[in-house]
Amino acid sequence: MKKLIAAAVVAAGFATTSDAAVLRLDGYTSSVQSVSVNASPVANTPGRVGATGFNLTDTTGGMGSFVGWCLDIAHYLMNKGASQNYTPTNDPYANSYSLSTIARGRVQSVFDANYASLDASNGDQAAAFQMALWEAAYEDDNSALSMSSGLFQASSAGSTALANGFLLAASNYSGGDQWNLAFLQVDGDADRGRYTGQNLVTVSPVPIPAAGLLLVTGLFGMGAITRRRRKA
Question: Which of 65, 134, 137, 198 could cysteine-pair with 72, CB 3.0–4.6 Å?
Fold first, then answer.
């Protein structure tokens, strides 16, 4: 999780920028797990896909290095070490399967309820989180979130139950936004079909308001004073 936080902090200013980025795939957060896609509303979805998080670097320097996740199940990502042009967007994803307002809120809840405790270096957890994001993005707006029913259905040994747990936590989440979502839209080439590259999502922590930071600092100081008094 420390690596996720560090990467997210690097990308913290990304949500407000409109500059294009040239992203290089450095590797994966964990081993890639095989996922069977049993139902999907997205045209040309493969029957079997790989799932994990992506370690990416903006070679133009604006975003640094960060962790990205796929929200475009019908296309393949670039090969490891290769680079491709991406553009920040607030309309994910007008060039493929667009997210509804409800779906975007569900994606937000999947991050808010689970990301702080996610171990993306664990293959089962990373695949489960990716599966939960697909379910949140592609499910019917009036359906409950589950990997085994509805418009989108998928399964993976070791990850399906974890994905359902992430979805349940997201459905029950009632707190505020913990993460700022930032969407990257690939500058695709229609002639390459599924090999145009995937649209991605990354996050940065929501900053603690100044008043809240002062409160945390004050509480920390009070705790230090109490410990000193006990020692005395």
Answer: 198
Q: Per-residue b/e over 118-156, b at no fewer than 16 CB within 10 Å?
A: bebbbbbbbbbbbbbbbbbbbbeeeeebbbeebebbbeb
Give the amino acid at 152: F
User: Long-range contacts of range 157-165, CB-CB < 8 Å, 24 or more positions apart?
Assistant: 158/33, 158/123, 158/124, 158/127, 159/33, 159/35, 159/51, 159/124, 159/125, 159/127, 159/128, 159/131, 160/128, 160/131, 162/124, 162/125, 162/128, 163/127, 163/128, 163/129, 163/131, 163/132, 163/135, 165/128
- Give the predicted TM-score (pTM) of the model: 0.84
For residue 4, what pLDDT band results from cuts at 50, 70 and 90? low
- C-alpha 77/C-alpha 83 separation (Å) is 10
